[in-house]
């Protein structure tokens, strides 16, 4: 048993491509699904503490039960086949044990009764759904249209980015509460009924364009300040320290930067009074672009890349090549950088290297959390 744990620890602490034909690829898939199923059954048992109130209203519990059921079947089936054929049995046994434990705890049949809606919570459900959706979609896209074909799924420093992914999802309740309080306290005076009524009467396409434009203008100048104000760069350098670009790299973000940026971006959205439907559509677009534009995909979109932010546009922003320093700030509309004179000008289509020049940001979530407060300029 101890030997199995040691092998699992070595696997989780390593990086590089998984060898095909040894049961490692299927075993990792089974283990990932088993872990998500186990976390899911905990969320079913304690929804008031482990699920996000804003998301609960949109859930179809019957659909979630079916997703969990088939995930358990798939994870358990893969694990069982690997055990029978002696393929990475230590990995398969761990996945099968988690599926069995999930089933013993009630699995997809756990009843969800009435519960209080004002309890403190962590966003376990948001973590499960986003990890499952992002990994299924973007790993597939990265393999279908790869920019760097030799970059494995488990590339160097993936553990650091995954730890950021976990924390930033789990504290979603704190972030939402803090940003809402700050927005209402700092910008509540600016809300005017007349302007809000005009915005709410806009056709949906016009309102959606306006909310993205307004948010991106704030995002642009906030982002630019992170690069040009030394105190703010201490926070933002953590995000730029990723030396590989993929769907997980965008998760590397200091929690203080997350709070500042979300507060400033949400402020005009609150002041202008956009409808819930428009805000929901904006959130979907933001979520997709935030992951896709960091992904390891060879996408440039021809002339459209001068209008909207693409992976090619944002990869340049993360480059430590000289011509890319302090360039390409926009999150949605690339024309803002061309308008303000901060777009990258290069004869090459893609950058060569990512990260910060000098590579002075330490690796590891805890070290990166402390870094802005202990960093000395070099």
Structure description:
This protein has helices spanning 2-12, 24-45, 47-50, 53-56, 61-84, 89-104, 124-144, 158-170, 172-187, 193-200, 204-228, 230-240, 255-272, 276-292, 311-317, 335-340, 365-374. The model has no long low-confidence stretch (mean pLDDT 92). It is globular and about 65 Å long. The protein has 17 helices and no strands.
| The number of domains | 2
SSE ordering: HHHHHHHHHHHHHHHHH
Distance between the amino and carboxyl termini: 47 Å
Unreliable stretches (pLDDT < 50, length at least 5) are none
From the spread of the alpha carbons, the general shape counts as globular
Number of strands: 0
The major β-sheet equals: none
What's this model, at a glance?
The chain has 378 residues and is mostly helical.
